[in-house]
Amino acid sequence: MNIKNNNNEFKNFYWFATGQFVSQFGSKMTSFGLVLWAYKESGSVLSTSLLSVCYLFPEVLLSFIAGSISDSWNKKKIMMVSDTVAAMFSFGVLILMSAHSLKVEYLYLINFMLGIMDSFQNPASEVAVSFIVSRENLMKTSGLRSFFNSFTGIFAPVAATSLYAFFGLKIVILIDLSTFFFSLITLLVCVSIPKVYKTVDTSESIISKCRLGIQYIFSKKDIHSLIMFMAFVNFIAAVYNSILSPMILSRSGDNDVQLGIVTSTVGIAGLVGSILVTRLRPVTKRVPLILNIMTFSFLICNALLGIGRNFYVWTFAVFAGNILIPLLIANVEYIMRTKIPLTMQGRVFSARNTLQYTSIPLGNLTAGFLADNVFEPYMHRVSAGKLFFEKVVGSGNGSGIALLYLCIAAAGVLGCFVFRMNKDMKRLDEN
Predict the structure, then answer these.
(1) 81: buried, middle or exposed (CB in 10 Å: 19+, 13-18, 0-12)?
(2) How far apart, in whole angstroms, are the C-alpha atoms of residue 83 and residue 92?
(3) Looking at residue 197, what is its pLDDT?
(4) Which of 50, 121, 174, 211 sits in a 20 to 30 Å window from 314, CA-based?
(5) What one-character DSSP code corresponds to residue 310?
(6) Alpha-carbon gap, residue 126 to 336, rounded angstroms
(7) What span, in angstroms and rounded, lies between the C-alpha atoms of 417 and 419?
(8) Structure pTM?
(9) Model confidence pLDDT, tens digit, residues 6-35
(10) What does the pLDDT look like over 332-351, one tens digit per residue?
(11) Which of 214, 137, 225 is nearest to 428 (CA)?
C-alpha cells in the first residue's frame, strides 16, 4: 500500500471511529442517566437491573439475524437507521419527561427497543471496520478503538452524573441527541465503506444465513476454540465485575470515594493499555500471548483483590489486571478479522457474540448466588476451614467475597492451562 492510500485509509477510519465514539459517549451518558433516574424513582436495585436485562435480551436473541442481514445489506444504511430509531426513543423519553409522564415501566420497553437497534448496529459497525482498514493496520486501529471505549467507560458516567446533578436528565438526553446528529453527518459526508463485489445467492433465506454462521464456527475448530476461550474469560470477568463493588463497600465501611478510585482505575488501565497497543510491534505467535495475558490477569488481579485488605492493594490489582486487556482484544480481533472471509463476518461475528456473551449473565447469576448463599455465610460461621481462610483473606463483612476472588483466580489460571493444551487453538498462528 502506498503512502497516499495509507493516509486516505486512516483518514476514513478516523472519521468513522470518531463519529461512533461521539455517538456511543452520548448514548452511554443517557443510559447511565436513566439508571440514576430509575433508582431515585423506585429505590430498587432490582428495578434498575431489569433495565440491563431488557436491553441485553433482544440483543442476544436477534444477534444471529442481525449479523446475517449486515452481510447482505448496506452497512452504512444499517448504522444510520439504527442510530436514528434509537435517537427517536431518546427524544420520546424527553417528551415524556416534559409532560411529567415518564415511568420506570416505560423505560423497560424503551431499553428493549434500544437493544433491538444495537443488535443491528453493532455487527454492521464491526464488519465496517474490516472493510475500511487493511490487514496490516488492524492492530494500530484496534488500539485507538480500545482507547475510545476506555475513555467512554471512564468519563461518560462521570459526565452523566455531573450533568444530572446540576441540570437534570433532560440536558443529558439533549446532549445525546446532538451526538447523534454529529455521528449521522459524519457517516453521510465523511465516511466511505468500500464494497466487496462477490457473487451472493440472493435467494438464500435469513434463517439459512444464520445457520451458515453457526455452521462456519463449528466447522472451524480453531475459531470455535478461541470463541469458547473468550466465553470462559467473559464468565470469570462477569463474576469479577458483579462482586467488585459489594466487596469494596463491605470491606471499606461503605466508602464511596474508595470505590470510585478503584473502579476508575479499571478505565485508566484500559486507556494506558490502548496507547501501548498502538506502540508495540505485532507478534507472530498471538495465541500464547492471549493465554499469557489472561493467566497474568486472573492470577494478579483476582488473587490480590482477595488477599488485599485496603484500597491501595485493590487499586494496584485492577490496574495490573486490566492494563494488558486492550492488547488481548487487539490480537483476538486480528485473528477473527483475518481468518474469517469478509462476506461471512457479519453472521459469524453475530454467532460469535451470542456464544461469547451468553456466559456474562450466567456469570452474574453465579456470582450473586455464590456470594450471598455460599461464601459469605461460610465465612460467618465457625469451622476449621474458616479459621484457616481468615488468615488469608481476613474476617468480617466481605471476607466471603474475597475468598470467592481467590477461587475465580484459581479457576481462571486452571482454565488458561487447559486451553493452552488445545491443539486447535494453536493452529490459529499458522498462516
Answers:
(1) middle
(2) 14
(3) 46
(4) 50
(5) S
(6) 11
(7) 6
(8) 0.70
(9) 667 778 888 888 888 888 888 878 877 787
(10) 988 888 888 877 777 787 77
(11) 225
Largest CA distance in the chain: 72
C-alpha cell, 419: 486451553
Burial class (CB in 10 A: 0-12, 13-18, 19+), 80: middle
Radius of gyration of the chain (CA): 22
Q: State the cell numbers at 244.
A: 467488585
7: which 3 cell numbers? 493516509
**Size of the chain in residues:** 431
Q: What 3-state class would DSSP assign to 130?
A: helix
Residues of the chain by 3-state class (helix, strand, coil), percent to 5: 85, 0, 15
- Residues 127, 128, 129, CA angle at the centre, nearest 5°? 90
Sign for the CA dihedral angle at 157, 163, 164, 165 comes to: positive
CB 297 within 8 A of CB 322: yes
Quote the CA–CA distance of 50 and 35 in Å, as a whole number: 10
Q: Nearest-CA neighbor of 148 among 284, 332, 271?
A: 271
